[in-house]
Amino acid sequence: MTTAFSYITFVALIVIQSINPLKPNYMSGVNKVILVGNVGKDPEVKYLEGGVAVAKLTLATSETYKNRDGQKVEQTEWHNIVLWRGLAEVAEKYVRKGNKLYIEGKIRTRSYEENNVKKYFTEIVADNMTMLGGGPRVDGNGTEVTAEMASTSGSDDLPF
Predict the structure, then answer these.
(1) What are the extents of the domains in the chain?
(2) How far is CA 69 from CA 65, 66, 73, 74, in A?
(3) 124 burial class (0-12, 13-18, 19+ CB within 10 angstroms)?
(4) What gap in Å lies between CA 38 and CA 61, rounded to an integer?
(5) 125 with 108: CB under 8 angstroms?
(6) Model pTM?
(7) By three-state DSSP, how is residue 90 classified?
(8) Which CATH fold would you assign to the domain 28-145?
(9) Gap between the Cα atoms of 44 and 61, Å rounded
(10) pLDDT in tens, 40-74
C-alpha cells in the first residue's frame, strides 16, 4: 500500500509543479531566418574599434506563381543582411553582386528618428553563410583561379 501511495503522491507533485503559476512552463520564442537568394550589390565592409569587421549587403529572394489569369508572376523581396567578424571578412574577400548565398540568421528591427518621425529598419543578422553555385574560385590573394591553373601540377608523373 505504501508503494502505491508513494507513486500517487509523486505523480500528484509532478502535476502540481507543472501548473505552478509561480514557475511558468512555456517555451521561449524562436527567431530564425533561412534565406537563399542573390546578392544585390557588393558588400560594404567597415572595420570598427578593435578591428571588428561588419559587412552589409542586400539579398534578393524571388518566388514565382501563377495568378488567377494563369499568367506567371515573379515576386522579389529584398533583405538587408548584416555579417560580423569572420563572416564579414569572408564576404569582403569572396562575395560579389550576383552570387547566390544561403543565409541563416535572426531578424532585428532597429528604430531611429528622422525629422521628428520615428522610422524602423529591419535587417537579418547572419549567424551562418554558405556560398552556393559555381562562381569563380578565388585564392587567398584574391586572384581568380582558372581550371587550367588548378589542374596544372608541373609534372605529368603520378606519385604512385
Answers:
(1) 28-145
(2) 11, 8, 10, 14
(3) buried
(4) 7
(5) yes
(6) 0.66
(7) helix
(8) OB fold (Dihydrolipoamide Acetyltransferase, E2P) (2.40.50)
(9) 20
(10) 999 999 999 999 999 999 999 999 999 999 999 99
Residue 150 pLDDT greater than 90, yes or no: no
Single-letter code of the amino acid located at 152: T
12's CB contacts (< 8 A; 6+ apart) are none
Strands 53-66 and 33-39: antiparallel
CA distance 88 to 95: 10
Which three cell numbers mark 67? 495568378
Neighbours of 58 (CB within 10 A): 16
Cell numbers standing for residue 25? 512552463
Residues found in the chain? 160
